[in-house]
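Look over this record before class:
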Amino acid sequence: MSDRKTVVDSPIGPLTLVADDDGLRGVFMESHRHLPAWVEEARLDAAGFDEVLAQLEEYFAGDRKEFDVRLSVTGTPFQRRVWDALVEIPYGSTWSYGQLAAAVGVPGAARAVGLANGRNPVSIIVPCHRVIGASGSLTGYGGGVERKKLLLDLENGVLPL
């Protein structure tokens, strides 16, 4: 399999999309923390990204609440459990790290869940931005807390992008 990538403009800045023959592997923002080495190694090739681009455009327009693109993510079994739980957080809602830990069956493991959440390779599509601190604070986000706020505001109808 050969990874390919493209960089596209979005209302929250450039997004780097990475895919292989099985599906979408990653969505990364400019200056993204925890950028896997395979992103840099992927060859530039915009072919095959039409569906994800259309769905992202609908999302940023406020017309899409869930994504249904084929994913090809890799991670530990625990990370995958956390990422699977993220898609259960309803559009426009937030969960605390503790709520997410309880949802994956490890109450009290908010820190471990936070680390797995931070390694989510498909930002926006798998909505890691919907996880916040127990106090309601917008804690860390791979794409930056300011982008997290923009995405949450978009979903709550506060800020049209």
